[in-house]
Amino acid sequence: MYLTQYEQEMLEGKYGKGVAEAMRIQVALGEAFDAEHMVEVTRTHVAFAAMESDIWFNELFLNKGAVCKVPPTINPLYDDVYLRESVGQEDIPKYAEMLCRARKAFKGLGIVPTYSCTPYLQANVPRFGEIIAFSESSATPYVNSVHGARSNRESANSALAAAITGRVPYYGLLKKENRYGDILVRVETTLNDDFDYHLLGYAAAKKMGHGIPVFTGMHSNPRPEELTAFGAQLNTGGAVSMYHIVGVTPEAKDLETAFGGRSPHKEISVNSTDLVSLRESISYPDGKIDFAMFGCPHYNLDQIREVSRLLEGKKIHKDVELWILTSSLTKELAEKSGYLEIINKAGGHIIAGTCPDMPCWYQRYSGKVGITDSPKAAYYTPRRGINFIVKRMSECINAALKGGC
Amino acid sequence: MNNGYYCHKISGGFVEGEVLISKDDICFYLVEPETGKVIEKNHDLEGKSIVDKILIFPSGKGSSVVQGEGLYMLTRNNTGPKAMIIQHPDTVLVTGAIIMNVPLVDRVEEGFYQKVKNGDRVKVDADKGLISFI
Hints:
The complex is a heterodimer.
Chain A: H1 5-12, H2 17-32, E1 38-40, E2 44-46, H3 52-63, E3 73-74, H4 80-86, H5 93-109, H6 119-122, E4 133-134, H7 139-146, H8 156-165, E5 167-169, E6 183-188, H9 194-208, E7 213-216, H10 224-237, E8 244-245, H11 255-258, E9 266-271, H12 272-282, E10 291-294, H13 301-311, E11 321-326, H14 328-336, H15 339-345, E12 348-352, H16 359-365, E13 369-372, H17 375-380, E14 387-390, H18 393-402
Parallel strand pairs in A: 2-3, 2-4, 6-7, 6-9, 7-8, 10-11, 10-13, 11-12, 13-14
Antiparallel strand pairs in A: 1-5
Chain B: E1 4-6, E2 8-11, E3 14-21, E4 54-56, H1 64-76, E5 83-85, H2 91-100, E6 104-106, H3 110-115, E7 121-125, E8 130-133
Parallel strand pairs in B: 3-4, 4-5, 5-6
Antiparallel strand pairs in B: 1-8, 2-6, 3-7, 7-8
């Protein structure tokens, strides 16, 4: 693979051991995928949490003196301070040391502490055609499909290597010819809200197999939270880093453009029965609940406004805890807009920078039953002993008020 | 007789060891870190140890976070494979192999897959792009 003089110098250690190690990763990826050369990236997002390997990997680069040339945004950790001070969760200190080490390493590397899985909505928004390196299952499909930016399905580690070197090998979805559709998906049902997009994404991914799907028959003006839900589920039910919606996403003004003039390799359809049976297959049976959790992926301000509208003047059942997970910026806006106060008065919480797949929740809710509007939240948590009923947001709120459904 | 097979280097190194073949993709999070035993239900290698093996499998699988954590724990406990021979590379496996210094190759000549079986001893010279039977 061809390297410029500067890239060769990075590899040989002229800019320090950390940069050299990161470049070694980028060159190996280039070799693996037959890239002929590197290209510069202008944005990065790393899907690290505070797992042992995350800390080890980040400290390794930190100790070798690396600093990110293109400072990445980062995925959620958990808000130990909120849980300790506002809810009195007792077992938090045992994670405090790992959290502290993780935050220190991230800071040293120059990672921007956004702690959100939806950086593409507010803190790290690419333009059409921009070459970037994004990891995180909800982020990669959104930046490729909705923004029309170009990112491969990076792992957290390869995205960090891109952030440190400012380079990625030129292959895969960075090239126009690899961004055309493979599979035609006919949507034969009406999509009413983001919950339907959650279900459609998950169901389509399960049904279609590998490739880039092209959707027809969908609403012509989907809302941001609908597309956030859609991409996250496509990349949870399957491994979809890019999709097209004909007449909606920027590289799919019509069918022919979406497929690059080729015919689909495969055609499938998804109807309302598929969505109903998917929901039944992933949901825990109806009954009493211990908590309700929203915001996987992180809720935006519109979704929080809707929750506050449904909760205004009411009280959440005494045996139920209600959580909305979001970014710190959105939480601040919810506070200034008055929604936080309404939700707090009803007995609910908004917690920033946290995700359902975090140790604070396994400790709190292992063996318990929750309700959520996200199939992705339900997918990751059974191995932690948490059971989720999966329903539409308004039904989840009703359950939280009554204590069950 | 042709004893060597060309392959394509992804992560360098030179090792020899015993072959273990998996028909299924591997998620290293579902390998017990203390023993190197595959614990994934109904997996081709369920119950078998991958410790110090030349591991032949189609591809990695699983989300980047869990796959990375799995590889890391195996390397830290010295319960990982000596080398990996794969067909379909992905960013997680490539990055893991480079950082942990595990030789990783793909695109092995067709004849190799017809000849190789569990228990064979092979040399993997990833730097030269050559695999040979001992």
